[in-house]
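Section 4.2 – Deliverable D4.2 (structural model, holo form)

The reporting period included a commitment to supply a predicted holo structure for the target in complex with nicotinamide-adenine-dinucleotide. Inputs used:
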Amino acid sequence: MNRFHDQTVLVTGGTGGQGSSHVRAYHQEGANVMIGGIDTERGAALADELGTRAHFTDLDVTDENSWSAAVRATESAFGALNVLVNNAGVQNPPVPIENTEQATWSRILDINLTGTFLGIKVAAPALRRAKGGAVVNIGSTMGLGGTAHYAPYVASKWAVRGLTRTAALELGRDRIRVNTIHPGVIATPFIQEPAAGAAAAIADFYSPEPFAIPRLGEPADVTRLLLFLTSSDASFITGAEYVIDGGLLLGPALPAEAA
Ligand SMILES: NC(=O)c1ccc[n+]([C@@H]2O[C@H](COP(=O)([O-])OP(=O)(O)OC[C@H]3O[C@@H](n4cnc5c(N)ncnc54)[C@H](O)[C@@H]3O)[C@@H](O)[C@H]2O)c1
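Output (structure tokens):
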């Protein structure tokens, strides 16, 4: 399929993990892709590998000037910006609230929440110039409940939900749709490489075994939903939240003998 022919997509944190899966898929579907991120080496290598219709731009999502430069670079390389994917995000090392340093709290909120806010703020005029478009903010199933020892991360992802709804209201009349995807546990460095200070990878305490679909999510699972939500097939969907977790939030499935 070529659903994104003549469209330009900017993916933050597009240099690895889920972000690079999104970048590859958009590119394969005909889009021009701007890979935004802080890992210059990997971003440039990915852009080189994809060849035409792919560029890398240094983008630290916590910095408004960096956002302005990235949006300018996107419009100057490809003529417009049609889709923004606010994918960049970081996890805190797991510690109780009373042992959480304020610096850690601020860093996680800065990247996950302020980074998403700045992205919408700076990209909105460009999306308007393109006569409409779509934004997807990546939340988390952790943003739908509570998770002990992850207060900064949980709070940041909860807040992204309110930001998404507000942006959807403000931008809908300009034909700009804004939605959130909440991934469950997805096999990326995020869960496989323990955060600084963590005793074990998240994957160790989130074994998929008891759940309805007993496997970890793959980046491609999220990518397929993202492409749908930013395509014209989703033209009446805004301010919505999509959970993609293989049934994790349903709780443990019945054991085979009780079914
Ligand atoms: N993997 C999971 O289980 C999972 C579950 C729910 C939600 N998520 C969310 O999915 C998104 C992608 O995570 P992932 O699983 O690919 O993990 P990842 O660690 O592979 O990717 C995170 C990306 O964010 C980038 N990044 C960090 N700080 C940045 C900054 N200041 N500016 C720009 N980029 C920055 C990193 O360089 C990296 O490319 C994140 O928002 C994460 O919170 C992940």
